[in-house]
Amino acid sequence: MEKIGIIGSGTWGTAIGILLSNNGHEVTLWSAIPEEIEELKQSRRHPNLPEAELPEGIRFTADLAEAMEEKDLLVMAVPSVFVRQTAKKMNPLCRDGQLIVNVSKGLEEETLSTMSMILEEELPMAEVAVLSGPSHAEEVSRGLPTTCVAGAHKRVVAEYVQSVFMSPVFRVYTSPDVLGIETGAALKNVVALAAGTADGLGYGDNTKAALITRGMAEIARLGVAMGGKAQTYAGLSGIGDLIVTCASMHSRNRRAGILIGKGYSMEEAMKEVNMVVEGVYSAKAALTLSKKYGVPMPIVEQVNQVLFEGKSPKDAVSDLMLRDRRIENSDLPWEQ
């Protein structure tokens, strides 16, 4: 049995708490909002996970020191926009060699950093790993079969994370490609906004399949240019996470996109979804990265124009369809 502190009591942090508690670990769940902690204590349910009951063994606290003290493992599960400020608060409390598993997905707009880069910068005394894949909190919290990948620079760290999280309903693979895992996890949210927007416009399965496929091509091109490995984008944190985020109504990014396709502004869509829509925060960073590395990302470009420049979603789709003719894969040879 491991002692685990989960930093963040949103749906994903809570779902992981349920999983790890059911795995036999001692779990403490932290929120910066005391009222939220009190509600979880009293109801043993998360308001956005109504079908899941929180195990009696989970402890709840609004005291960050209590959540971190003498823990074998910490899970960073706050929304990506709060990772840096939370890590700063954790710094004085973090011991040398503390293992932190990041499960937040996104890119920091100002610095273009992944979440593990932020943690390594703010908590240089810690050992940072990541966990990602097609894993909606709503399904993990109910014990539905799910598969993820644990990434770390050292094999022993990834295998330790694997052993802690593995269960009969939660299968974990390992990978050394931390950058590839995190860029796939962050960039898929931007493509999911596009897929949802197409749904809101009333387009069909053909359109969604095209967005998923060409979106994955954009993600992989940029990720490889940044130093990620091509195989990673064909795996769980790449195409796997992209499919589930573009196809499921559990996806807040897809739901926000549907509303945008129906005529809502970005602000109105985020308010209606009433949860952090990570793709909105990652879209600008993705576009900046595409320019920095000289990688064309037409879907990401159109998403930014719709979100921040008032472009009509229908015009964005039209501009994507009417781009110059291209070859699908320039690496494939023709017969002479």
UniProtKB/TrEMBL annotation:
Pfam entry (one): NAD_Gly3P_dh_C
Binding site for sn-glycerol 3-phosphate: K105, G133, S135, K188, D241, S251, R252, N253
Enzyme Commission code(s) on record: 1.1.1.94
Residues holding substrate: K105, R252, N253
Residue ranges occupied by any Glycerol-3-phosphate dehydrogenase NAD-dependent N-terminal domain in the UniProt entry: 3-155
Highest taxon of the lineage: Bacteria
Active site location: K188 (proton acceptor)
InterPro entries named among the record's database cross-references: 6-PGluconate_DH-like_C_sf, 6PGD_dom2, G3P_DH_NAD-dep, G3P_DH_NAD-dep_C, G3P_DH_NAD-dep_N, NAD(P)-bd_dom_sf
Chain residues that bind NAD(+): G8, S9, G10, T11, W12, G13, F82, A137, R252
Main location: cytoplasm
Residue ranges of domain Glycerol-3-phosphate dehydrogenase NAD-dependent C-terminal in the record: 177-317
Matches recorded under HAMAP family: NAD_Glyc3P_dehydrog
Record function comment: Catalyzes the reduction of the glycolytic intermediate dihydroxyacetone phosphate (DHAP) to sn-glycerol 3-phosphate (G3P), the key precursor for phospholipid synthesis.
Name of the molecule in the record: Glycerol-3-phosphate dehydrogenase [NAD(P)+]
Organism (species): Candidatus Copromonas faecavium (nom. illeg.)
Gene: gpsA
